[in-house]
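Lab manual, section 2.4: Encoding a predicted structure.

Procedure: take the sequence of the chain (217 residues), apply the prediction step described in section 2.3, and record the output as structure tokens. A sample record is shown.
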Amino acid sequence: MHNGYININGEKMSKSGSFVLLRQILEKFEGRVIRLFILGAHYRKPMEFSDFELNQAKSSLERIENTLKRIKELNRESFVGENNLVELLKFKEEMEKNFIEAMDEDFNTAQALGYVFELIKATNKAIDEGNTSTEGFKVIDEVYNYLVMIMEEVLGVKLKLEAEVNNISAELIEFILELRRNARAEKNWELSDKIRDRLLEMGIQIKDGKDKTTWTM
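Recorded output:
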């Protein structure tokens, strides 16, 4: 149970007479963002309630999801090396222990989330270093499964791990680009340009490289 006061834009709600309705908040923010915001507030301190704080929670959720999406999208065949990621595995095991201790400490979810973000940071660092071995990828997968379990089953924050661009899945965009590559292979430049221009209208820019076509927003 949260024992701190709720402040709205810096003022204690009971004194300022200010209040907001949940449906008003949900017009701006998803319920899962609000849940993460509440979980991230210290259980004994006043809760600062504002668009800024909720946007911070939204960014934090995106940070978690982006790391998990990054794991899913790793090209494992081209990254195989010698690094078994032993240090990441040890870090993950230590983080598990710390997470449980924080939750046992009067359900201190704010501190527990801090450990989640430490693991997110360590995972991104391991991916950036590359040279990952087959065993190393098993560690990354273990971290992925653990983080999904913690966020969804323990903390109750639903994750969205399918990449979307303007409500279009990344998988669909890749399929469209495959059709365009086929058109270019058949020297159907008119269709190739039409696909490129249509994607651009949707805010998706593509760049043809020597071996592959990449896309960005």
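Check your result against the sample. The two ends are 42 Å apart (CA to CA).
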